[in-house]
Design a protein that fits this description.
- The protein has about 325 residues and is an alpha/beta fold.
- It has a single domain, classed as Stage V sporulation protein AD (Peroxisomal Thiolase, Chain A, domain 1).
- It has 10 helices and 15 strands.
- The chain has a 7-stranded mixed β-sheet with strand order 1-2-10-15-14-11-12, sandwiched between helices.
- Strand 1 and strand 2 form a beta hairpin.
- Helix 2 crosses helix 3 and helix 6 crosses helix 7.
- About 55% of the residues are buried.
Length: about 325
């Protein structure tokens, strides 16, 4: 049995993070991690007629550059696993339209990067594929239009809100080669503690992040010691809540817990309120900053726990609360 504990799967064969590629918008490029990204575009529209077309282009170019940099042919890629925030994951399917690579679309909201990496790891470990690209994206303007209000309306953003990252991150997983290796995967449960404020994603996702991290630590006890635990996009509010939930369970990760939503922007100077969010948030931070730390062996063991809010404008307007989800991938250098 490759399943250990309640929710975690051991990856017994080599699943290598062979390479990554990251593209971000100008605001992200101006942040603290600007030097780590592979490409920074000079404006959010990137020469396209709509924000949605710009996001599709981000994801497509991330995949194309990843393939090009590794000097491989598209037919050598067995699958693309991808998803995004937009209805019917159109950014992903339209980006894959011209790539001629088998495609599986997956929706995990902002947890999509860890979800695709986890599923790809199981497929490779099971012998069903040799090379899989995991990719996702988000765009500030497309997300605002769909989930809250078009930017043209000039709505006031409350201090609990987060800034959706404009960017795309792509990861090439393989059963051969050199690089950090995925060692375990924990798929999370949906946790909903009654948050209904669509401008406070951190609070909605924090309980799910705490639950998945706790379960991974229990399931992998005595097998691995994580130097760092990084969540997807809880932001300053969500990170504090998740740490407090874990402390009540007598699990203290505060000193080694980082959050992609807090790393990608300078919260004090860039006017992003509670930090970053969106599928692209954890995707670009992992595929740039954390991948380089792992590759250079500055981090030995990392738990990457992306987080997502599984809601829609329609259901929230009907008075429903916001379910949260978190999936975690244990990685070793």
């Amino acid at each position: 049995m490759k399943k250990i504990g309640k929710q975690t799967f051991l990856i017994s064969s080599d699943v290598v993070i062979k390479d990554t590629f990251s593209i971000v918008g100008p605001k992200e490029g101006e942040g603290p991690l600007g030097n780590y990204f592979d490409m920074i575009i000079d404006d959010s529209s990137w020469g396209e007629k709509s924000w949605e077309k710009s996001e599709q282009k981000l994801q497509k170019k991330a995949v194309e550059n990843l393939i090009k940099n590794n000097k491989i042919e598209p037919q050598e890629i067995d699958l693309i696993l991808s998803g995004d925030l937009l209805n019917q994951i159109v950014s992903s399917s339209y980006a894959a339209r011209d790539l001629s690579i088998p495609f599986i679309g997956i929706y995990g909201a902002c947890s999509t990067m860890a979800l695709t990496m986890g599923l790809a790891s199981l497929l490779i470990d099971g012998g069903f594929a040799s090379n899989i690209i995991c990719v996702t994206s988000s765009h500030f303007c497309t997300a605002e239009r769909q989930y809250r209000a078009p930017l043209e309306m000039g709505g006031q953003r409350p201090l609990s809100s987060q800034w959706t990252v404009t960017g795309s991150g792509a990861v090439l997983l393989s059963n051969h080669g050199n690089g950090p290796k995925i060692k375990n995967v924990t798929f999370g449960k949906i946790i909903d503690l009654g948050v209904s404020d669509v401008n406070n994603m951190g609070a909605a996702m924090a309980p799910a992040a705490a639950d998945t991290i706790k379960q991974n630590l229990i399931d992998t006890m005595n097998l691995v010691e994580y130097n760092e635990i990084v969540t997807g996009d809880l932001g300053s509010i969500g990170k504090k809540i998740s740490d407090e939930i874990l402390q009540k369970e007598k699990i203290n990760i505060d000193q080694r817990h980082k959050d992609c939503g807090m790393l990608i922007y300078d919260i004090e100077k860039q006017d992003v309120h509670a930090g970053g969010s969106g599928c692209g948030c954890s995707a670009v931070v992992f595929s740039s900053y954390y991948y380089k730390l792992l590759k250079e062996k500055k981090l030995r063991n990392l738990l990457f726990a992306a987080t997502g809010a599984l809601h829609s404008p329609t259901i929230c307007q009907q008075g429903e609360t916001i379910p949260g989800i978190s999936h975690a991938v244990g990685i070793s250098s």
